[in-house]
Amino acid sequence: MAKHLGLTSHKNPIETFMKTPKLFLDKHFYQWKRAKNGQLFDLGLEHKTIDDYYTVKQTIQKLDSEFDLVLITEYFDESLILLKKLMCWSLEDILYVSNGVRSASHRYALNDELRAKIREWNSADVMLYTHFNETLWRKIKEYEGNFDKDLAEFRSRQQQAMNKCIDDERLNKKDRREVKYVLKPNMTKSIFCQNLLRDDVAYTKLIRNKMKQYGLYLPFSPNKSIPVVPGAREPHSSYKHSRRRPQQRVRKT
């Protein structure tokens, strides 16, 4: 975003943007609609209604009725324990390596004043986050079994997997904007380690290929449409592959 706004030379592009955010937004730069309440925009809420409290509230309630679970990034391990229970998975099914983590060289300092401005600017997304964060902890409280024990066991297995697969002395430095791990030289042919390191783009491609293989992938047809929620924009073509709602829906925010 900083590149499209000509802010790459600024010491802190976020701080510069937040001084006059509406002025920048009015320029309608590339992906400008994601510069304010981008989470709800991605979930289908039209940008022109993003500041309407009642529309935002209604949209969040609708999302709550559609998603069985929403994962929270700050409590990702806790979220995965709930996902494992929901999907009847094993601990091995939820092991992961963090991807897309911003490198220290590309992080910007946020003081309390700047954080407050960001929250106010993205007030609808704050409502979304607050709602599903509260929902997450309610589900943890209602968890059947010993949640703390299961979480501790998962984190132990997670560390074992990292020790087994990840080379802690090297990083993939092709993209200096984010931290990217590499496999240990003796683990590059391990299917388990390959899957552990695989990122979301590669997994999406893998899943689509599997769907095509079994005849489950339905290309978008402009002659078929799905219902559009009042106040929401028409879904992108990549989301129109099926008119049937999945039995379980999970969202990470």
Task: Give a quick summary of the entry.
By secondary structure, this protein is mainly alpha-helical. The chain contains ten helices and six strands, in the order ααααβαβαααβββααβ. The strands form three sheets. The protein has a two-stranded parallel sheet with strand order 1-6. Strands 2-4 form a two-stranded antiparallel sheet. Strands 3-5 form a two-stranded antiparallel ribbon.
Description:
By secondary structure, the chain is mainly alpha-helical. It has 10 helices and 6 strands. The strands form 3 sheets. The chain has a two-stranded parallel ribbon with strand order 1-6. A two-stranded antiparallel sheet has the order 2-4. The longest helix has 19 residues. The protein is globular, with a radius of gyration of 21 Å.
Features:
mainly alpha; two-stranded antiparallel ribbon; 44% helix; 6 strands; 253 residues
Topology:
Elements lengths: L12 H7 L1 H5 L12 H5 L10 H14 L2 E3 L4 H12 L13 E2 L9 H10 L1 H19 L5 H19 E6 L6 E2 L1 E3 L7 H7 L2 H14 L36 E3 L1
Parallel strand pairs: 1-6
Antiparallel strand pairs: 2-4, 3-5
Strand percentage lies at: 5-15%
* Shape verdict: globular
Helicity level, as a percent range?
Answer: 40-55%
Uncertain ranges: 224-248
Strand order of the largest sheet: 1-6
Largest beta-sheet characterization = 2 strands, parallel
Radius of gyration: 21 Å
The topology string of helices and strands comes to HHHHEHEHHHEEEHHE
Number of DSSP-assigned strands: 6
Mean pLDDT: 83
Q: Give the terminus-to-terminus CA distance.
A: 20 Å
The number of helical segments is: 10
Structural class: mainly alpha
